[in-house]
Structures are given as structure tokens and as C-alpha cells.
Description:
Shape: globular
CATH architecture: Alpha-Beta Barrel
Mean pLDDT: 96
CATH superfamily: Aldolase class I
Number of strands: 8
Strand order of the largest sheet: 7-6-5-4-3-2-1-8
Bound molecules: 2-phosphoglycolic acid
Oligomer: single chain
Helix content: 40-55%
CATH class: Alpha Beta
Number of helices: 13
Structural class: alpha/beta
Number of domains: 1
Amino acid sequence: xxxxxxxxxxxxNLTLEEGYGLASEIKWMVADEVNNKAEVVLIPPYxxxxxxxxxxxxxxxxxxxxxxxHKNKGxxxxxxxxxxxxxxxxxYVIIGHSERRQYNxxxxxxxxxxxxAALENGLTPIYCFGETLWERESNLELTIxxxxxxxxxxxxxxxxxxxxxLAYEPVWAIGTGKTATSNQAQEIHAFIRSVLTEKYTKAAxxxxxxxxxxxxxxxxxxxxxxxxxxxxxxxxxxxxxxRSFVEIIKSI
Length: 252
Ligand code: PGA
């Protein structure tokens, strides 16, 4: 019923040439049968998007952006608007990645505005949330993840929230090689789904894909992706190499 999504977040990596090379390899390696089980999404830097869109035109692979502004246009030097992304045919946009929360000081309140702007433009937001190491060691993971989800998303109507994808990304597992165990991840995913059920309806909560992100790789993907409430992955490091990314897709 829920859609499985395997999304590769390239972050600030790869030149244009390298990016086109990687996208072509993935397109070639991802057979249609695999593609039917999961939606495959490439999320390169903005600069690569147009060329990669072209490259993927005759495939089922979708594209996404790593961020967007909350306004459609204006005097915001250096920013990219959701209207521009939608106009290019981009499908997804990551909102609230922990690196943007940490290095760009993005708050739940600002992220709520970005969510609205993305939805107004017909983009599917991938809303990231997750606790830091200190928060987990202080047993605050449920409190923190719940407040990030509430403050970023709970102004939405049921119709709107059904258009959002969530991604649980424990900050202590991102790029560190430390992965949440499948029990730790499943616990948070099930908890967030229960929070969604309480606010909206069970039907809505059951229809929303919740991805896991944080050092997902071919060795641990199968176990994580077999958990009842884990509906795919948001993958950083392992998405920069075609073989490991495609192996993760195939482990569904
Ligand atoms: P990682 O990154 O797979 O390199 O840990 C995941 C993410 O930040 O989306």
C-alpha cells in the first residue's frame, strides 16, 4: 500500500561529469522489475539537475533537490525556489536535513514554511527529523522526534500530509558508519506513525512512507528495509557509487 522509496542524497559531492556518469550507470543497472518495487530517486546538487533530468527522461527514475527556499521568487541571492524546481520537472525536495538544521540554523518553524511552499508547487517534500547523540544518550529521542514532526508538519491538513514523505535520520548515524539497529529504527518509525495516527487518522498514517537514513549500505539494507514501518531509505555515502546504491535497491 505504501510506496517504497530509495533516494540517493549526493550532498555536495561529484562534478557535473562525475554526476552524469553515476546517473547513467544507475539508469543502466536498474532493471524495470526492480523499479516496480521501489521508486528510485536521485538527489544531486542543483547544478546537475537539469542534465540528469534529461538523461533520465526515458526511465522511471525520479529526481529531487536537496533544499529549496520558502518563496517562489524575489531578492534572495543564492537561493533556489520551489517554483523553479517544479517547473523543471523535479519530483521531490528534501526539507530539514540535519546538516541544514546544524550548519544553516534551519528551525522547525522555517521548515514548516518550506513544506508549504513545496506542496503549493506540487513537489513532494521529504521531511527529515532525528535526534543527536546527546539527545539519544539523554533518552530524549521520542520527545525530540515528536516535536520535530509536530512543529514542521502538524499545521497541514490530512490531504496535505498524505503528500509528504518522512525520513528518520538519527544525526549520530549520518556519515559516521554507525547505523541504528533495526530495532532502534523500527521503534522510532512505529512511534512516529502512532503520533500521525493520533493527530490524523490511521488510514492517513498508514499511507505515509517513512524512510530511514543514516549509514544505510548494502550490508544492513535488507534488515532495515524488512522492518514493518520502514518504507525505504535516504542514502548518502552509499549512493555515490552505483554498485552499492543499486544493491540497496535490490535488497527490497
Ligand atoms: P549517510 O547519509 O548515508 O552518508 O549516513 C544519509 C543522509 O544524510 O541522508
